Amino acid sequence: MSTESFDPRERAESPKRADPSGRAGALERAIEAIPLVDHHVHGALAADVSRREFEELITESDRPVPAWMTQFDSQIGFAILRHCAPALGLDPHPDPETYLARRTELGTEEVNRRLLAASGIGHFLVETGYRGDEILGPARMAAVTGRPADEVVRLEAVAERVAAGGTGAAGFAAAFEEALWEHSRTARGLKTIVAYRHGLDFDPGPPTPDEVTAAAGRWLRTAERSGRTRVDDPVLLRHLIWKGVERGLPLQFHIGYGDPDLDLRRSDPLLMRGFIELAERRAVPLLLLHCYPFHRNAGFLAHVYPNVYFDVGLGVNYTGARSVAVVAESLEPAPFAKILFSSDAWGPAELHHLGALLWRRAMTRVLSGFVADGEWSESQAVRVATMIGAENARRVYGLGEDA
């Protein structure tokens, strides 16, 4: 680990636009000071990785990177070289070889410390259901950052653990319910990846007990033959979701952009309207995650349904220099009390850092434009940025105030 001194308050610099009034500068400082609540994130890497592994972790593709190209030649790659390099002690815009050499020199532990501190994230809600042995869990994220980190429990992961532990079809529903309540005892929220496993065009109502038992029998027999417990039966997925609603914690849905395991055509949140309306009477917050390129549709749903919230997390990182447009579009129809911040970072701490930095940069540019045009006051801009960056998540997840 490097012994060079590093101020945790340091941020990688962002390009400034001319602003003779000084308003954008004051607004930027206010947005920079928000201790963001990342309401959907995964842990940072727990071990060093090779260049090939690193490049595979900065794309949503699950295919090997072709030998004739590099993932650094992308919006996210350029954003890493521009905004993460200064936090690692380099000038902006190094070549990938120089950047990765510096990363190796420092080591993953120091890279995590620097980039997570520079993000200015004040509270992490960590989803733990995917390749958890390769990344830091909530306790280790809290230890590295000195900031609170709570868990978000993935419904499908709980069901698959129940199946792997041995249960019959008739006993599955009860076993899942017991396991869900136990695993979520200290969690702040739940998450489903039904968009990946089936699509958002699922039957909106809860299945009957007989339907659940029959579906569990089919699933368990298939799992026994294949040795894989992946749950993708639409009846079981609906059962997991409705049990999540019964649990009463905020329930997150992956929406839109993701890896090729997902059919993007079936991940438009408008497909969920029937479910949203049935769930509305339960008053459980439904959080639509990331949403790109359907973020305007998510904004409509947040506008018309009191139980729906959304963010543009994953899309911000992967649109890089164009993320200002994505953030601007997220501010169109939805009430500002219904929009949250997330990074959806998994693995390289660059993704955690960029999720925060690019969001702050985009909010500064968009809101300063509103102020300069006389549409908003500066105090309104600061209040909305603080709501979206932290206060809305604190209200929805019952976080209270951190020290």
From TrEMBL:
Molecular function in Gene Ontology: hydrolase activity
Occurrences of domain Amidohydrolase-related (ranges): 184-399
Disordered: region residues: 1-24
Biased amino acid composition, Basic and acidic residues: 1-20
Cited InterPro entries: Amidohydro-rel (IPR006680), Metal_Hydrolase (IPR032466)
Protein name: Amidohydrolase-related domain-containing protein
